Amino acid sequence: MVGQSPLSPGEGRAVLLEPFVHQVGGHTSMLRYDEHTVCKPLVSQELSFYESLPLAMRQFTPQYKGIVSVHLKKDSLGNLTLMASPGLGQPEGCGRLDKCKWAASASTEHGLVKWSHTQVTKTFRDSCPGKVLLRTDLQYHTDSLLEDVNGNQPEKKSYNPWGLHCHRQHLNRMSSKPNENKLHQFLLLENVVSKYSYPCILDLKMGTRQHGDDASEEKKARHIKKCEQSTSASLGVRICGMQVYQADTGHFLCKDKYYGRKLSPEGFRQTLRQFLCTGNQLRAELLEPIILRLKALLSVIRKQSSYRFYSSSLLIIYDGQEHKESAAPLDHHFPFPKTHGANPSRVDVRMIDFAHTTFKGSKSSPTPHDGPDHGYIFGLENLIKILQSLSEGK
To answer: Which top-level enzyme class is recorded in the Swiss-Prot or TrEMBL entry (predicted)?
Structure first.
């Protein structure tokens, strides 16, 4: 139900907020609230979108579950303490705050828990036993995380560093002195990859325009340049992040937004093909269900008059390991539930990130646009064409 958190009001249980290990794109830190829920900092424009979401679009967006309040403090040693209210979202400064464990064990139930680099690193590592997703060293420079000395990204990485990179930046912002005692509001959203054992995720920035109507001239110019120098201009879509499980090695191959910005249209096509390869084999059986889902989304977007999905992303998701019905018993130590049902090749397509989405009736859209979002439609049409060409073996 809209406006309600997964916990009933008054339960007062401590909530373990963990880094969301499958964040492949974006700049806002995502946190794992529970098995089926993630949370992200609240932006009023995005909240407005979810609260007035057209019925036809709901199957293509994460379910909105409500709001939670998060309070962060910093001690004299620089350690961070996170406190949260897991009931209904209260206005800033109101309501009882429950202690929120951050990257800690259940044995610390009655005490405030300190956040440290070591603890967060351990959380990432323990979240994926046997699957080394992230390096264990947090003392890195951002540039070295993204490229080598020649400006190239390694083809293969045994970790997905992007979520960790976002966490470090976001926590630094949250712990700055003006924000130190502030009560932060977070959106609670469906974890759209919770049903996958080895989620392969492609994050696509959609449309030919990325800046919102409220962007400054400087920001507008910066985003226009990024679009002109990438496949956003030529295809209406560019890669913002990716992780693909490699069944032959047991690791995820990862790419970030800086890699995506450099791709030519042919490079985009080859990376799209790479996304559908789990090791040495192209998962050709995934192409038709992905194309059908994208066509269904295209039909819906064409009917959404006045909507502009500036800077939003589209996720394409599938399970990186095929599970036969006669498979061995589940590994209960692995935290991501196995895909259930008779279709091991199930795919999903979801729109995310609506902080700059505008539509008629939105408080942030005093001058609404007319007709559907043609830039978004252009990107979807090209994406479908490329996938169809891959399906035909071209």
So the answer is: transferase
